[in-house]
């Protein structure tokens, strides 16, 4: 299932390459991607902020080759599981 999540997030980031809006394409695609990640128990680390900014600029630049598989692989490497999603509740022990 994780590859499905990362594939959906890759599509959300790839949306900035299509420039569907007059302004805010990278911001919009990143918010959608971050929301999909969070709803599925993942996040991108704040310490990777510079790399995320670089990758978003690279994805949105139509003159640079970029495919969904590369974005998905990068996301698998950079996204982390929320610890709360794996934390057991008291009911898991009953």
Task: Describe this structure in a few short sentences.
This protein has 94 residues and is mostly helical. The protein has one domain (2-93).
Our Rg estimate from Cα atoms comes to 15 Å
Strand order of the largest sheet: 1-2
As a percent range, the share of helical residues equals 55-70%
Strand proportion = 5-15%
Main β-sheet: number of strands, strand sense, barrel status? 2 strands, antiparallel
Would you kindly provide a written description of the structure presented here, covering whatever features stand out?
With 94 residues, this protein is mainly alpha-helical. It has one domain (2-93). 63% of the residues lie in helices and 6% in strands. The chain contains 5 helices and 2 strands; from the N terminus they run ααβααβα. It has a two-stranded antiparallel sheet. The protein starts with a helix and ends in an 8-residue tail after the last helix. The mean pLDDT is 85.
């Amino acid at each position: 299932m994780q590859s499905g999540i990362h594939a959906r997030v890759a599509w959300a980031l790839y949306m900035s390459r299509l420039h569907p809006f007059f302004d805010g394409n990278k911001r919009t695609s990143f918010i959608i991607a971050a929301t999909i990640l969070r709803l599925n128990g993942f996040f991108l680390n704040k310490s990777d902020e510079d790399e995320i900014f670089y990758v978003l600029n690279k994805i949105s630049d139509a003159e640079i080759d970029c495919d969904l598989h590369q974005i998905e692989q990068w996301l698998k490497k950079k996204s982390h599981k929320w610890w709360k999603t794996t934390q057991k509740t008291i009911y898991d022990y009953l």
